[in-house]
Amino acid sequence: MTKTTGHCFCGAVTFAYSGPQTWACYCHCTDCRRNCAAPVATFLGTPLDGFEWTGQTPKQFNSSKGVIRHFCDTCGTPMAFQADHYVGEIHLYAATLTEPETFEPRSHVYYNSRLPWFHLEDGLKKYGGSAD
């Protein structure tokens, strides 16, 4: 099975996974926007059983109850998100993929929290909150 890979800005933190992509979305929630210092974050999910950190292990930050955010301790790149309510999954920032142009988002989550000046007219499904 083909492995999908990714890395942080400086290349210290790297990952690979060979499992399926469980979801792909734009997230407009305040926490994700602040974590990335961007108007929207882009995520893809994959099962933990096919995922591995292949370089330096990222640092972790418990951003809220049941939520861990992974980041590079050297360059600060946000790398991944894990939450208790997504058991057995890790959610990676699409921009960290070695080939981010292959990412195809399928929906918007927390669309009701979007910034009023950021517009995406892409026709994708828009959830006011989580897509769960």
Summarize the topology:
Elements lengths: L3 E4 L6 E4 L5 E5 L2 H7 L4 E7 L3 E3 L5 E6 L2 E5 L6 E6 L5 E5 L13 E3 L15 E2 L6
Parallel strand pairs: 3-10, 10-11
Antiparallel strand pairs: 1-2, 2-5, 3-4, 4-9, 6-7, 7-8, 8-9
Describe the structure.
The protein has 132 residues and is mainly beta. It has one domain: Metal Binding Protein, Guanine Nucleotide Exchange Factor, Chain A (Beta Complex), CATH 2.170.150.70. The protein is built from one helix and eleven strands, in the order βββαββββββββ. It has one helix at 30-36, and strands at 4-7, 14-17, 23-27, 41-47, 51-53, 59-64, 67-71, 78-83, 89-93, 107-109, 125-126. The longest helix is centred in the first third of the chain and has 7 residues, at 30-36. The protein is globular, with a radius of gyration of 14 Å.
Oligomer: single chain
Please, how many helices?
1
Looking at the structure, what is the overall shape? globular
Terminus-to-terminus distance: 28 Å
Taking all Cα atoms into account, the compactness measure Rg is 14 Å
Question: Unreliable stretches, pLDDT < 50, 5 or more residues?
Answer: none
Number of domains: 1
Percent in helix = under 10%
Largest sheet: 8 strands, mixed
CATH class designation: Mainly Beta
* Number of beta strands: 11
What is the spatial order of strands in the main beta sheet? 6-7-8-9-4-3-10-11
CATH topology: Metal Binding Protein, Guanine Nucleotide Exchange Factor, Chain A
Estimate what percentage of residues fall within beta strands.
Answer: 35-45%
* Known CATH architecture: Beta Complex
